[in-house]
Amino acid sequence: MINQCANLTCSKPLHYLREGRIFVFDFSDSRAEPDSKGVRPRHLEHYWLCGECAQSYLLERTAENGIQVIPRRPVRSRRPTPITVNAARAS
Fold this sequence. Notes:
Helix content: under 10%
């Protein structure tokens, strides 16, 4: 069960889901034996970043089936470049 922010330097307790972001990751259980078709059991794990951390960070799955906190990339400005049009004067 999620009870605090996944950012270990924050660890803000989770009281309400009004702020922040939930991340869901699908993991295979490497300790369990595969079934008759060779498929290992899977399970979902939920993580939460508080509102303040969610503005600056994301969660990412590592190759070792762990989770790490990574910084968000800066958002580029999407403002269109102004275009200057010279109007021709009628003589």
